[in-house]
Design brief:
alpha/beta; seven-stranded parallel sheet; 13 helices; globular
């Protein structure tokens, strides 16, 4: 294939409900969509960078020039046969994994469509129902959180994740466990704690949690080793795992027992598969994290989740939880048993809603 045209679009979408983590509260999403064209086919990807540099140093406004000046020019007009050739072509661009992942995802979609097969099959996954969990942000009052959990359980979700931060943690988890004593429950701190909080975090052990996600700073694997030695609850690393080498190191030193894989965080499907393979070889389970993606990014997460070591429910939930109208058709739905069945159609298995995308586009550039 020879890449003939690349279109980068920024779209703006309001969220159905605000979403709050230890980084802050957001009410909408600015998202970069990447479309690539070759041989009469189009492939689509999504850059998951946020509006502000909280979860990552990358933002929508840093990803745009990196794509425009450094990534797209290295692929435009270039002949390639496999999407996994792309990381080698952009290796000299240091960092910016979310920008890289947006373009690479589109190339994988394009390759799968050219081959006439679903993306999950091209990635090496298998056709199986994907178990789904749900992520619930920090709420104004505990009662609101409890009602939201009840609604998500009624919708069939197999695992509940709640965001925590200092002042919204042990008391809240205790209330959730009292109300829902048998659900699969985990907490996500998004790096909100430090070494002085070890005794406090150890109090969460009594709530039989599936895992505690990223309690400490993203760049402090050593302290996670210390904390994991203190806890019965497995630590899951998210922001700390930037690539396969981080995963191998963190597992080797005992910093975690579970890994969250986000395609955007590690730079694309190629590296996500590599992290998956490292964890599988070391006997560490993985799951697919979410970044409030629109349907296009969400469809890529569904495909990735079909790999065999994705054994824990991921944050691959239904479109309607986040957006009144999504970027892909049909909207991604979760079945009553809390699973998503991957599409058998070529590529990501969902069609971009071009009419809606045009209406919500705030800027675009064609190369």
């Amino acid at each position: 294939m020879k890449l003939e045209r690349v279109i980068v679009r920024e779209v703006s979408l309001p969220l159905v409900h605000f979403f709050e983590t230890s980084f802050g509260r957001i009410h909408g999403r600015r998202v970069l969509l990447v479309e690539v064209r070759a041989d009469g086919l189009s492939g689509w990807g999504e850059c998951v960078a946020d509006d502000a540099p909280g979860f990552s140093y990358e933002t929508v406004d840093t990803a745009w020039p990196v794509l425009s000046r450094f990534l797209v020019p290295r692929m435009l007009g270039v002949r390639f046969s496999r999407a996994d050739e792309y990381p080698g072509r952009v290796r000299s661009v240091r960092g910016h994994p979310m920008a890289k992942a947006g373009l690479e995802a589109a190339l994988w979609d394009l390759q799968a469509k050219a081959a006439g097969i679903p993306l999950w099959k091209l990635l090496g996954g298998r056709h199986r129902p994907i178990p789904c969990g749900v992520s619930i942000g920090i709420q104004d009052r505990p009662g609101i959180l409890l009602r939201k959990i009840e609604q998500e359980l009624e919708a069939g979700y197999q695992r509940i994740k709640i965001k925590i931060k200092p002042g919204w943690d042990v008391r809240i988890v205790a209330a959730v466990r009292k109300r829902f004593p048998r659900i699969s429950l985990m907490v996500d701190a998004n790096s909100a704690y430090d070494r002085t909080d070890f005794d406090h975090l150890a109090e969460l052990d009594r709530f039989d949690l599936l895992m505690m996600e990223q309690p400490l700073e993203y760049d402090d694997v050593f302290r996670h080793v210390e904390l994991q030695a203190r806890l019965r609850t497995p630590i899951c690393l998210d922001e700390s795992i930037r690539h396969r080498r981080d995963a191998d190191h963190a597992i080797s030193v005992g910093a975690c027992r579970i890994v969250n894989i986000k395609m955007g965080r590690v730079g694309g499907h190629t590296e996500a598969k590599a992290v998956h393979d490292v964890c599988r070889a070391r006997g560490v389970p993985v799951w697919c994290g979410g970044m409030l993606e629109t349907g296009i990014g969400r469809a890529h997460n569904v495909a990735l989740s079909t790999l065999e070591n994705f054994t824990l429910p991921g944050d691959v939930s239904a479109s309607r939880r986040y957006f009144h109208r999504d970027t892909a058709r049909p909207p991604i739905e979760v079945d009553a048993d809390g699973t998503i069945t991957p599409s058998l159609d070529p590529g990501i298995g969902y069609e971009p809603d071009l009419e809606w995308i045009d209406r919500i586009t705030v800027r675009s550039r064609a190369f």
